[in-house]
Design goal:
Layout (H helix, E strand, L loop, with lengths): L2 H11 L2 H22 L4 H23 L7 H24 L4 H14 L6
Helix pairs in contact: 2-3, 2-5, 3-4
Amino acid sequence: MSLQAYHKAQRSAELPRDTEYRLFAQVTQALIEAGRKGRSDLAGLMDALDWNRRMWSVLASDCASSGNKLPDALRAQIVSLSLWVSRYSSEVARTGAAMEPLIDVNKTIMAGLTPPTAG
């Protein structure tokens, strides 16, 4: 089985929570790498910020839909975080503000997506 076929099979067997975690991990890693390179790779920085902002925008749109089953308070918090991510990303792009707050928010969400260990 090719590596590509393996990854395709793995993704099709994932739970939505696992898919969300994987996406957050990929976006967060892109933010970390962009933060390391800083403005020396401006295109990479902007791409990482845009990817993160688009991910959060999709989450907010999903939370705003009437079919979303999350509790209303959680949905509102996600929409609020999305708005903050958008504003802060602009600040990072414009002034070179630290990337860590964006990374920290994503890592906090990832921790919430990780199922508790049995034991």
